[in-house]
Amino acid sequence: MRRLIYLFLAVAATTSFSCAQTQTAQTDTANSKNVKTLIKKMFGHAGGKNLELVDVEPTNKTVTLRAYKLKFKDKAGSRYIYGYVWMTDNGKNMALKLYKFDSETKGGMPLASVIEPKVREKMIKTDLSWFKNILKELDKNNIPHVVGNGNKIIYIVWDVYCPFCYQNFSKVAESLKKGIKLVFVPLPVHGERSIKGFVYYTYLARKEGAQKAMGHIFMRGNGNFMKFNQSLAEEVNKNYNKIPEKERKELEKFYTKIRSDLLKKGINATPTIIYIPPGENNKGYIHRGFIPFDQLLKMK
């Protein structure tokens, strides 16, 4: 039989909602209003400079603690993020994490996991008119970036040296069989190294097309990212100066600019998946990290 034990403590900051120690709340009774005020006072940055605390809702209760569900809004406007704080009824003590221990063990140690809301993140439909301008810039600068010709379109913000892009490449490639058009938007998150990688990708893609160039880049390493990373870097360094200097300089300038444009809009991770539902002109969803495409295509 599974037996749960609840532990009241806070631990060193490992997530947006963690703290170094259990906090003492400066309030006589706990309720949503003063919990919200307290959270804002203690953690004015919320979970980071890009997040804003927008709501506090009382929810689950243990014998001695009440959970308050926190709702944060990404200031880029693309998602809500949810977490818990736990507080005693008198409002004197608060914990940022609560663990549950299972009677089952692994290697003689008890298994434990943080108690979190079932839904940790929810995408918000947001204005993407600025994103359409990014796409126009790719066309204007002759950057091959479209693979497939299906009537369902998914946009993938990627980096040539992104380990998560590499890990999910086979899933992305498989989606082409399902009538999905993939539009790849470059974001050189690893600095000058990535810019050089994208210049080399563009050099290949202009000769043989985006799909073959993507395959040439990612179909190496046999699933081992370190081998992939080393192999690609060696090829780029070996062939970079073979690219005409004028073309290199123009592409380096372009990729520096597109990185700046995306970062200003809060797009700072790869992969980031963007989806604009059918019938929408400039409104859609932004998801940081990979998400199954069939799940994404159900969104209206």
What does this structure look like?
- There is one protein chain.
- With 300 residues, the chain is of the alpha+beta class.
- The chain folds into two domains: 4-123, no CATH class; 126-296, Glutaredoxin (3-Layer(aba) Sandwich), CATH 3.40.30.
- It has nine helices and 15 strands.
- It has helices at 32-42, 129-140, 163-167, 169-174, 192-208, 210-218, 225-239, 245-264, 293-296; strands at 4-9, 23-24, 51-61, 65-74, 79-88, 93-95, 97-106, 109-114, 121-123, 126-127, 146-147, 152-158, 180-186, 272-275, 283-288.
- Strand 7 and strand 8 (109-114) form a beta hairpin.
- Helix 5 (192-208) packs across helix 6.
- The two termini are 42 Å apart.
What is the typical, i.e. mean, pLDDT?
Answer: 84
CATH class value of the largest domain: Alpha Beta
The rounded distance between the terminal residues' Cα atoms is 42 Å
If you compute it from the alpha carbons, what radius of gyration comes out, rounded to the nearest whole angstrom? 23 Å
**Beta-strand fraction estimate:** 25-35%
Number of strands: 15
**CATH fold-level assignment of the largest domain:** Glutaredoxin
Q: Unreliable runs, pLDDT <50, ≥5 residues?
A: 1-28
Helix tally?
9
Give the overall shape, derived from the CA principal axes: elongated
**Largest beta-sheet details:** 6 strands, antiparallel
- Total number of distinct structural domains: 2
Order of helices and strands: EEHEEEEEEEEHEEHHEHHHHEEH
